[in-house]
Q: What sequence folds into this?
């Protein structure tokens, strides 16, 4: 048993005492109700405590690209690594590839999930299919030869026996000539995210009305905000129930535009509403040094944690999720509390997962800010 005193909790005022037994959070009490001589107590002196991060867009780690998954053991190594990076759960993201290759990766994820939970290993929530139903004009680093038309028959053929393995699907809604795909995906509990898209605001609003509830890496692979055509992102910012992922590495979105997003009311929305959440968008060299690495049939060059194709196209990052929390605080865009929420509470809310509450089996992070730097450790 552990008793933690003088704890700050995201989205709660004041200081608290936490009682933890066998990784179960037994109780949360205001400090005013705690006996002064509590035994086995650890004074956190006002540090923040949160759940671990949840990464809903991560493409690989330790040299493994998730579209190249061959065995459950490979996925287990990545899950173990992410646990030690402060991540409690993640959605292995499979980018546009040959259909057979995508289904092979889905079969490995399915086999891994059937093995059950592992101690000190991040939970695999299910796959995030980022493609192949993307707009070719906004495909970014996705290979154009494997893009597919967005239609019921192509979606059902791709998913085949792996519908239950897919947790999130990113698609460009303007590609669909007849409605039906988004409601069908939602009927199978797949969260629909809009991205790699040229959707107008009207097309995006139609997709939201059909059940889409997320936006993939805000600002990236979509038109920027325009005063006459707000586009996909503008539509999302006016819909209080919509969640939007964002990459806070300083390269995908400059801090000025991140500030604009946060000021647009998506930083600390009311309970039950959507908002911004952090994703890493990390590629397979996550956990490896800078250098040149294979990526599908091409190569990427990683410099200072940013990955690009040989033609300079931005393809991702090798920064872990919680670096984004540190960046937001360092740049002065968020309080410590707000930044923590964006990586821990908000992605859970986006998928309807439970957030910090008593009677949960949970694993906690302790955050310390010394006025200059933010650091974390597992409790």
A:
């Amino acid at each position: 048993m552990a008793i933690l005193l003088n704890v700050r909790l995201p989205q709660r005022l004041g200081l608290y005492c936490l009682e933890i037994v066998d990784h179960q959070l037994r109780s949360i009490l205001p400090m005013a109700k705690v006996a002064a001589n509590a035994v086995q107590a650890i004074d956190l002196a006002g540090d923040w405590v949160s759940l671990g991060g949840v990464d809903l867009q991560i493409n690989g780690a330790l040299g493994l690209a998730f579209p190249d998954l061959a065995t459950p053991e490979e996925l287990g190594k990545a899950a173990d690594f992410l646990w030690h990076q402060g991540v409690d759960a993640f959605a292995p993201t499979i980018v546009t590839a040959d259909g057979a290759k995508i289904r092979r990766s889905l079969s490995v994820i399915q086999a891994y999930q059937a093995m059950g939970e592992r101690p000190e290993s991040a939970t695999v929530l299910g796959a995030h299919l980022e493609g192949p139903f993307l707009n070719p004009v906004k495909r970014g680093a996705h290979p154009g030869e494997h893009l597919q038309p967005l239609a019921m028959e192509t979606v059902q053929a791709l998913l085949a026996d792996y519908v239950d393995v897919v947790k999130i699907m990113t698609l460009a809604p303007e590609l669909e000539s007849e409605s039906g795909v988004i409601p069908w995906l939602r009927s199978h509990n797949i969260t629909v995210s809009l991205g790699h898209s040229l959707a107008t605001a009207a097309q995006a609003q139609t997709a939201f009305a059909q059940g889409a509830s997320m936006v993939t890496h805000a600002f990236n692979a979509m038109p920027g905000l325009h005063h006459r055509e707000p586009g996909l992102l503008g539509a999302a910012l006016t819909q209080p129930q919509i969640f939007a992922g964002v990459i806070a590495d300083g390269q995908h979105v400059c801090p000025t535009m991140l500030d604009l997003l946060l000021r647009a009311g998506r930083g600390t929305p009311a309970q039950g509403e959507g908002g911004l959440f952090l994703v890493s968008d990390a590629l397979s060299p996550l956990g490896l040094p800078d250098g040149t690495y294979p990526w599908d049939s091409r190569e990427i060059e990683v410099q200072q944690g940013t990955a690009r194709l040989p033609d300079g196209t931005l393809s991702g990052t090798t920064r872990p999720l919680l670096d984004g929390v540190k960046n937001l605080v360092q740049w002065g865009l968020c309080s410590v509390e707000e930044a923590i929420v964006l990586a821990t509470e908000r992605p859970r809310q986006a998928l309807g997962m439970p957030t910090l509450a008593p009677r949960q089996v949970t694993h906690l992070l302790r955050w310390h800010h010394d006025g200059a730097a933010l650091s974390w450790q597992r409790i």
Observations:
- The first helix runs from residue 72 to 83.
